[in-house]
DNA sequence: TCGAATGCAAGAGCAGTGCTCTCGTATTTG
DNA sequence: CAAATACGAGAGCACTGCTCTTGCATTCGA
């Protein structure tokens, strides 16, 4: 009775998946704001109050979607990374960046859910932090691999890092249990910020009337970020 | 009867201001999602339907708040810029960046309104584009001044700009009616993206557990962006 | 195997939302 | 001074998240 789950348990986890699926479908149409429990229930042919057996409230459903989104994006990045020859560090970086943009463009509302304004009233629980850090970790892993292969062009900074930044770089590098130089970690953080800054600006319309078809700017910037990090 | 507005007209524009004020107050508490016309009306001691005499719908009120937010931020940046010796271009850049961050931190919900996820269902009308471009224009003006003073260190790019990017750089420079070199315009766009990427990440919690007190990273990055642009 | 405990869906109901329409009054205009 | 216009109030519609109760189905323990 322990190994195989009871019928009720299987039905339950299946329904949870169906609820999330329907919610995601609705999210992609009307966004987080328009995510209505009643509409989700309607789509599944049940009554809204029944949903509360599976999610305590709307926020809990949102949290589940947020975690799924982080995981999906991270998986996409990791897959794109793996598809490139592992010693081609620049190629891996560019593939990872393009995968990020591709996923964001394909799932704009899910992207907005995790990287856009926090849904007001909603406080992201601790449980979202770990999945969320999978994304930058996937990017930093490329830098670590390059560093450990001795392929990184580590240029000396003309301005020394302030102590706070050194501490923070240490903490970040510790996640990967790697001795990536401080300057490289900070430059990687810059690249990470720039990558998502570009995607956010593009998706949220800030490039309208300036860099509007953002493809050229994106590709060019990704290459410059590889330069910045020191990827060969 | 033309020079001085009628009593009704004065009352009207005054009420519009009061409505926006109350809405802003409510925005700063519960965010765009929680902005309720009924609550605004309640605060003003009127009935919700009366608001529709002044704003056709919720979106129109949001648009007004968005435009005000852009204008407020731009004004803040321009003031910070003016407060620095106009020939101290790096000082002006740093002051402008810090002013941006300061305003965003002081008005997180208004920042989220304009730079966060677009409110779903809400389509930003054309009217928001012009006020929105005042912000990057204010930043680029510093670069233009530095360039026209011959103070800019224009380094040659090792990678040539693709044609699309050259076109877009031309279009951007045209706004300021200035012949800023293409490379400088694109690097300024990078700096602009990085600036708002950092603020967005900081405000929306992406730096949690990594660069969390983001002051050091911000100040350091702002200086590196000044380097990137070539400010003296 | 059978009764108790538990899981579950449904329905009614509450307080709230954006928005529309009507109606009587106040103001402005010709 | 009459006609046109602007306005606030109120009722009402369709919707929301969420709670509580009720009755049925499934699971579990003795």
Gist of the model:
2 copies of one chain form a homodimer. With 232 residues, chain A is mainly alpha-helical.
Description:
Chain A is mostly helical and about 230 residues long. Helices cover about 65% and strands about 0% of the residues of chain A. Chain A starts with 6 loop residues before the first helix and ends with a helix. Chains A and B meet through helix 6, helix 7, helix 8, helix 9 and helix 10 of A and helix 6, helix 7, helix 8, helix 9 and helix 10 of B. The first copy, chain A, binds a DNA duplex (30 and 30 nucleotides) through helix 1, helix 2 and helix 3. Chains A, B: Keywords: DNA-binding, Transcription, Transcription regulation.
Helix-strand blueprint:
Two copies of one chain form a homodimer.
Chain A: H1 7-30, H2 37-43, H3 48-51, H4 58-82, H5 89-106, H6 108-115, H7 129-148, H8 163-175, H9 182-203, H10 215-229
Helix pairs in contact in A: 1-2, 4-5, 4-6, 4-7, 5-6, 5-7, 5-9, 5-10, 7-9, 8-9, 9-10
Chain A binds a DNA duplex (30 and 30 nucleotides) through residues 1, 6-8, 12, 36-39, 46-50, 52-53, 57-58.
């Amino acid at each position: 009775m322990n190994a195989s789950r009871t019928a009720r348990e299987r039905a339950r986890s299946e329904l949870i998946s169906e609820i999330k699926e329907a919610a995601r479908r609705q999210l992609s149409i009307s966004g987080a704001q328009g995510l209505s429990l009643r509409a989700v229930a309607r789509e599944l042919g049940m009554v809204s109050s029944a949903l509360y057996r599976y999610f305590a409230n709307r926020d809990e459903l949102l949290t589940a979607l947020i975690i799924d989104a982080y995981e999906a994006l991270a998986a996409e990045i990791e897959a794109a990374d793996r598809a490139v020859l592992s010693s081609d560090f620049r190629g891996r970086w560019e593939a990872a960046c393009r995968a990020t943009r591709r996923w964001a463009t394909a799932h704009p509302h899910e992207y907005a859910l995790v990287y856009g304004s926090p849904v007001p009233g909603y406080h992201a629980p601790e449980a979202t932090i770990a999945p969320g850090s999978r994304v930058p970790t996937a990017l930093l892993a490329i830098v670590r691999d390059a560093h450990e292969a001795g392929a990184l062009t580590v240029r000396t900074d003309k301005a020394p890092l302030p102590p706070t930044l050194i501490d923070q770089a240490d903490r970040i590098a510790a996640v990967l249990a790697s001795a990536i130089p401080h300057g490289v970690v900070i430059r990687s953080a810059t690249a990470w910020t720039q990558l998502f800054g570009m995607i956010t600006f593009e998706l949220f319309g800030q490039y309208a009337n300036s860099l509007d078809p953002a493809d050229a700017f994106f590709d060019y910037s990704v290459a410059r970020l590889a330069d910045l990090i020191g990827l060969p």
